[in-house]
Automatic annotation (TrEMBL):
<dbReference type="GO" id="GO:0050622">
    <property type="term" value="F:glycine dehydrogenase (cyanide-forming) activity"/>
</dbReference>
<dbReference type="Pfam" id="PF13510">
    <property type="entry name" value="Fer2_4"/>
</dbReference>
<dbReference type="InterPro" id="IPR042204">
    <property type="entry name" value="2Fe-2S-bd_N"/>
</dbReference>
<dbReference type="GO" id="GO:0051536">
    <property type="term" value="F:iron-sulfur cluster binding"/>
</dbReference>
<protein>
    <submittedName>
        <fullName>Hydrogen cyanide synthase subunit HcnA</fullName>
        <ecNumber>1.4.99.5</ecNumber>
    </submittedName>
</protein>
<keyword id="KW-0560">Oxidoreductase</keyword>
<dbReference type="InterPro" id="IPR036010">
    <property type="entry name" value="2Fe-2S_ferredoxin-like_sf"/>
</dbReference>
Length: 88
C-alpha cells in the first residue's frame, strides 16, 4: 500500500492508501472516536460494517461520518468528536 498524509486531531500522520478511517484510527491507537451527546459516554469501533454508528467522527469539518466505511484520502482532516459534533 502507498503511504499518504492525513491530519489526525491537528497532527500530520501517515496512513495507508485504501484503508478505512476506522482501521487507521485503531492503527494509531485511537480507540475512542467520540463521546455521546448527553451522557458523554465513550464510543468507538464496534461493528466495523457501518450499521451501529458508534464510530462517528468529524472528517474535513463535517461531523457524524462513519469511520468504518470511509476510506482515508490524501490531506483528509480527521477529528474525534464531542457529542453531535459541529460543522466547521
Amino acid at each position: 500500500m502507498t503511504g499518504i498524509q492525513v491530519i489526525l486531531n491537528g497532527k500530520i500522520v501517515e496512513a495507508n492508501e485504501g484503508q478505512s478511517v476506522g482501521a487507521f484510527l485503531l492503527e494509531q491507537g485511537t480507540r475512542i472516536t467520540r463521546n455521546t451527546r448527553f451522557k458523554q459516554k465513550p464510543r468507538g469501533m464496534f461493528c466495523g460494517i457501518g450499521l451501529c454508528f458508534d464510530c462517528l467522527i468529524t472528517i474535513n469539518g463535517i461531523p457524524n461520518q462513519r469511520a468504518c466505511v470511509t476510506s482515508v484520502e490524501e490531506g483528509m482532516a480527521i477529528d474525534t468528536q464531542e457529542g453531535a459534533g459541529s460543522i466547521r
